[in-house]
Structures are given as C-alpha cells and as structure tokens.
Amino acid sequence: xxxxxxxxxxxxxxxxxxxxxxxxxxxxxxxxxxxxxxxxxxxxxxxxxxxxxxxxxxxxxxxxxxxxxxxxxxxxxxxxxxxxxxxxxxxxxxxxxxxxxxxxxxxxxxxxxxxxxxxxxxxxxxxxxxxxxxxxxxxxxxxxxxxxxxxxxxxxxxxxxxxxxxxxxxxxxxxxxxxxxxxxxxxxxxxxxxxxxxxxxxxxxxxxxxxxxxxxxxxxxxxxxxxxxxxxxxxxxxxxxxxxxxxxxxxxxxxxxxxxxxxxxxxxxxxxxxxxxxxxxxxxxxxxxxxxxxxxxxxxxxxxxxxxxxxxxxxxxxxxxxxxxxxxxxxxxxxxxxxxxxxxxxxxxxxxxxxxxxxxxxxxxxxxxxxxxx
Length: 374
Fold this sequence. Notes:
Distance between the termini: 13 Å
Strand order of the largest sheet: 2-1-3-4-5-6
Shape: globular
Number of strands: 12
Number of helices: 14
Order of helices and strands: EHEHHEHEHHEHEEHEHEHEHEEHHH
Largest sheet: 6 strands, parallel
CATH architecture of the largest domain: 3-Layer(aba) Sandwich
Number of domains: 2
Structural class: alpha/beta
Helix content: 40-55%
Radius of gyration: 22 Å
C-alpha cells in the first residue's frame, strides 16, 4: 500500500524527546503493517506574513505550515496516487478539510495524534488560575481553550480515522466529531534491561519539567516528600529544563539537578543507581508519557499514577499505582529498602515482557483501518 507520511521535520529528527519517539513508533508500526511510506516533511513557516499573523492574529494549529508545502503535497498526490495519507501530529488538524478536498475519493486520510492541544491548554489554564498571583478567572485562557475546541471540532471530521496515544483521548475525539477513532498502546523492547546497581538512597525523574502538568506533578511530589522529612534520600533530575530544576533544588535540599545527560552511556550509568524511577503526574495530560516505556526497557522499578500509565497496556503482571502525591512520596521512601525495590523491579520486567510488540500493534492498525490482514 502506497502512503504519504506528513510531518514537521523536527518530529522526524534523530534522538529527541517524546514527540520524536512517538513519531518513530508510528513510522515503524505503519511500515510493519505493510505501508510503503514516503516522508513529506515541512519546516515552520517563517515568512514575514506568517510571523505577523502569528503575532497579531493568533489561531490554534494555524500559520505554521508553509503554503508552498500545501502546493507540493497536491503535486505529490497526483504523482504518487497514495492509498493513504498519514498526518503526524496535531499541526494538520487545521488542514484536514483542505487535504480531504484535494485527495482522490479512494485515498484515506488518517490523523496520527500525539494528543489534542486543548487537553493541555485546559490544564495550563487550571494551574494558572490556582497560582496565588492569578486567583481570578483568566479570560484569555478560556478564549484560547474555546478556539482550540472549535478548530478541533471543525478539523477532526475531515479524517477517515484518528489514532490516539491514550484511551481517554479517543472519547474526546469522538465528542469533537471524529468519524472514527482508536488508540494504539506503547511498544516496549524488553530484551536488554540495564545492569541495575541501586545504592539505596536515590530515586530519579527524567523529562521536560517546564510542561505545566509535569511541573505541577513534580512540585507536588517534592512538597509531599519534604513533608516526610527524608533522611539521606536524593531526588535526581535528568532534564533540559534547567530553570525549573534549579528552582526546585533551591526550594528542596534533597533535589539534585543533573542536566540532560546527553550521552547515553552517562544516562544509563546514572539511572542504574536509582532505587526507583518516579513519574509524578496527577492529571490526564495530552498523549502519553513515553518516558515510562524507556524506564520499562531499562528494567527500573517504576513509581507512578494511573495518569502516568495512560497509553500503556499489558496482559500479565501489575505495577503499583497511587493516586496522590503523598502516597507517591511514601512509596518512594519504601523503595529505599533494596529488597522491596527488587520486588518492584521484577514486576516491571514481567509487565515489559507482556507489553505489545511492533508486530501486534501493526496488526491492530490494519484491523482499525479495515485493511485485510494477511
């Protein structure tokens, strides 16, 4: 099956964070499902008209994709005559109706969602209103959320199918008018866990912490841990969010900001010393937390919430799931006992081995798109 894979060039870059990881996972599973993908990437429109529109006429999902990219796609469709066009990330929601109008009737248009931007905008507005300096109603945030929902409800029905990264967003997409939607669970490569060497005093987090839901969760966890007055426990932060990490280190004496640890060898040597990998998040943010899959592949004990495990499924084993920051802090202290942490690690290894594979997700893609399974 011939298919175009449309994406921002940043999403297709090697390495990177969750966005790049999810893009590679989509790409790999689509290829495994039998789609012969031709990548068609765009870079952000930095022309003066586009910059002025973004500055003075801001609109969600709009004014990012260059007009010449749209014209290039139309030529490409005529030349390739694809069976499917896959649109990676929410940038394309505002283009859905136009793309549908220029595609042949037989060509199916599919959105590869990494999450709806409105989901995180709601959390950002909620968090801002809860801050001491902003107790009142933030009408600008409310207006922005409303504009995003209008754009999503206008664009989603243009797609023949929408793939989501978490089950809860399927229902939101349906509510917004998506014609067909399903979610694809994360794949986990459990073949080569790290040689775990916990030193009995460290837990750690990896991620981008200036993202509002992540920052809120990490801050709540630090406050709860401080309330337990831990002795000798260190919270190790691996992140590019330097300002956030520095602020937390100044506020909580047990926080160690390590920077991004760009070298894979350095990163794995560090995390192998942790008694547990902590993912503190207490709201259903957009998409999924790809960092959990990485921790599973490392074979580290994982401490998180139901929201932290959104987008994951497995058919054997259990992970400890807590609901509050206080419960997560207590679990982190319990994990300082290495024998207890070893039990948590064994549970992670079982779950990782029972998680979906690229091949099983590829079969699901074919079923969801009603493509014959051979």
